[in-house]
Write a structure and sequence with these properties.
InterPro entries: AAA+_ATPase, ATP-dep_Clp_protease_ClpX, ATPase_AAA_core, Clp_ATPase_C, HslU, P-loop_NTPase. The chain contains 18 helices and 11 strands. The protein is of the alpha/beta class and 443 residues long. The chain folds into 3 domains: 197 residues, Rossmann fold (3-Layer(aba) Sandwich), CATH 3.40.50.300; 114 residues, no CATH class; 102 residues, Helicase, Ruva Protein, domain 3. The strands form 4 sheets. The protein has a 5-stranded parallel beta sheet with strand order 2-5-8-1-9, with helices on both faces. Strands 3-4 form a two-stranded antiparallel ribbon. Strand 6 and strand 7 form a beta hairpin.
Length: 443
């Protein structure tokens, strides 16, 4: 994670247009984590993350900024919606489940890191297992000449297996029989343990059983990788590393936090449990210990990023204690026509590039004139103004509608080059966008 704030922002610029303030704030927050880990232990404990509150309409890049960084830097990340939680005692998810989700994500992340570190050992295990099925074992009393011939055959078969020449052959392998699974990382640990005990009762003598299945060599490679991982990886070490990673590097993105704010203007119509959810959320954001089935997790150094549109409420409608736990606030800009155009043309793996790649699979070359791209951006912006503003997500609905017929008939245009110009865009989208009632159902 040794990236400077400028390098982090530069990376984000490849995928997200604009929103410089938000990028800068998150870049500094992540860099401060790196700086903190370089300090003496007693000072590390004193430095807590500066949690962030993002304010902006849907589709302007709030989640994407955080998710993109977490994925690139291999950080445990979960996105939750504040409106899905209820006050303790009411029906619904409890707020601590977000921490259990984070640890589950960290387990997967660390396990993949260990798999990569042990990739050669895992591949060797798989090759050995498959060769055992392809070549009958040599009798123990075989002569030296037979042993030499067998070894040569084994090496040739091994080389062909690695090169994929044997992928279509069918072999019979043994895989663990499916067991009853009651696993749910969102359950409180005491309930999870109880369910685990029940599962063991029902699966005594079952989990150890193997079932035989005939599969292709290619399929066997994937099935046996899981078996190899279970046998070769130290799951206890993975668990310990994951708990540490969740505590020190985890990011929890709490979306729709404005939905649990109690606005003074509409307090008479508010759900009475909203303030309760805020108070249940407070100790987790402040720093507490949450028990999970993998072990206790301290939330003191987890970075919390909250986000909301705040159309019907404002940040000051949150309880004061919770407001104080999100000292960094940044407002994201709405997307105008020019920004939507840049999203289509300047982002890495943009929506237009994605559709061009999809059509290439059918042997069709798809070309967009610049005037057509500007028209798409204009229609998306107009639709956002007339209907609900869903930001860059509107581009998906607009482009999908624009190319729907061509996509359906793509096999008829194999080997052709199709050019999308402004006239084509106007013909397909003009009437829909102008007709507000029609646009509601299509865009």
């Amino acid at each position: 994670m040794d990236l400077t704030p400028k390098e982090i922002v530069k990376y984000l610029d490849e995928y997200i247009i604009g929103q410089k303030d938000a990028k800068k704030v998150i870049a500094i927050a992540l860099r401060n984590r790196y700086r903190r880990m370089k300090l003496p232990k007693d000072l590390q404990d004193e430095i807590t993350p500066k949690n962030i509150l993002m304010i902006g309409s849907t589709g302007v890049g709030k989640t994407e900024i955080a998710r993109r960084l977490a994925k690139t830097l291999d950080l445990p990340f979960v996105k939750v919606e504040a409106s899905k939680y209820t006050e303790v005692g009411f029906v619904g998810r409890d707020v601590e489940s977000m921490v259990r989700d984070l640890v589950a994500n960290a387990i997967v992340l660390v396990k993949e890191i260990h798999k990569e570190k042990n990739r050669e050992a895992i591949e060797e295990y798989v090759i050995k297992k498959i060769l055992e099925k392809l070549l009958p074992p040599l009798p123990k009393m075989a002569s030296e000449e037979k042993k030499s011939e067998y070894q040569k055959t084994y090496e040739k078969m091994r080389e062909r297996l690695i090169n994929g020449e044997l992928d279509n052959l069918k072999i019979e392998i043994e895989i663990p029989k499916s067991s009853i699974s009651l696993d749910d990382s969102n359950l409180p640990p005491e309930i999870a343990k109880a369910q685990e005990s029940i599962a063991k009762i029902f699966t005594i003598g079952v989990n150890k059983e193997q079932i035989k299945k005939e599969v292709s060599v290619k399929e066997a490679k994937e099935l046996l990788k899981n078996e190899a991982s279970e046998k070769l990886l130290d799951m206890e070490q993975i668990k310990l590393e994951a708990l540490q990673k969740a505590q020190e590097e985890g990011i929890i993105f709490i979306d729709e936090i404005d939905k649990i704010a109690v606005s003074s203007k509409t307090s008479g119509r508010q759900d009475p449990s909203k303030e309760g959810v805020q108070r249940d959320l407070l100790p987790i954001v402040e720093g507490s210990t949450v028990n999970t089935k993998w072990g206790p997790v301290k939330t003191d150094h987890i970075l919390f990023i909250a986000a909301g549109a705040f159309h019907l409420s404002k940040p000051s409608d949150l309880i004061p204690e919770l407001q104080g736990r999100f000292p960094l606030r940044v407002e994201l800009n709405s997307l105008d026509e020019e920004i939507l155009y840049k999203i289509l043309t300047q982002t890495k793996n943009s929506l237009i590039k994605q559709y061009q790649a999809l059509f290439e699979v059918e042997g069709v070359e798809l070309e967009f004139k610049d005037e057509a791209l500007r028209a798409i951006a204009k229609y998306a912006y107009t639709a956002n103004q007339k209907l609900e503003d869903i930001g860059a997500r509107r581009l998906h609905t607009v482009v999908e509608n624009l190319l729907e017929d061509l996509s359906f008939e793509a096999d008829e245009h194999k080997g052709e080059k199709i050019t999308i110009d402004k006239e084509f865009v106007d013909e397909k989208l003009g009437e829909i966008v102008e007709n507000e009632d029609l646009a509601k159902y299509i865009l």
